[in-house]
Amino acid sequence: MKRFHVHVGVTDVDKSIAFYSGLFGSEPSVVKTDYAKWMLDDPRINFAISAREDAVKGIEHVGLQVEDRQELEEVYGRLRAADRPVLEEGATTCCYAQSEKSWIADPDGVVWEAFLTDGDSTVYGGNPDLDRLASANAATSACCVPQMAPAKPACC
């Protein structure tokens, strides 16, 4: 079963953890100094926040997290059929996790990722270069979000 993913850039992780923990009625499953994640079943969502100096505040990206390779191939097929450029990033480290992922941007530049997480990481990870997904309306800087224009070095 797929899980909806939302990543929000915040100014203060501690204040945001307190707010979202109250909103969700649950503490985060992962807490770092610059990051937190809730894996909720009601609603079924992977909700993450991060405070990165060069990241956009507010919604950074959305996505679909899958539970196995078969679901990943199903979602990848949908991305390819969407008639938009797709970057198949493959195996990567992002948000303190090891994942396989691909990225796409909708016609207005909203960035989506499709991914399967298969392990933890001790580092936050880097940013893929997705210039070909560029859109005039796309965010230009966010950690773990494809860079839509040349940017300074990755956040980690």
From TrEMBL:
Domain of life according to the entry: Bacteria
GO molecular function: dioxygenase activity
A Pfam family annotated for this UniProt entry: Glyoxalase
Domain VOC: 2-117
InterPro entries xrefs: ArsI/CadI-like, Cadmium-induced_rsp, Glyas_Bleomycin-R_OHBP_Dase, Glyas_Fos-R_dOase_dom, VOC_core
GO biological process: response to cadmium ion
Sorted UniProt keywords: Dioxygenase, Oxidoreductase
Gene3D superfamilies the record matches: 2,3-Dihydroxybiphenyl 1,2-Dioxygenase, domain 1
Keyword Oxidoreductase: yes
Protein name: Glyoxalase/bleomycin resistance/dioxygenase family protein
Lineage per the UniProt record: Bacteria, Pseudomonadati, Pseudomonadota, Alphaproteobacteria, Sphingomonadales
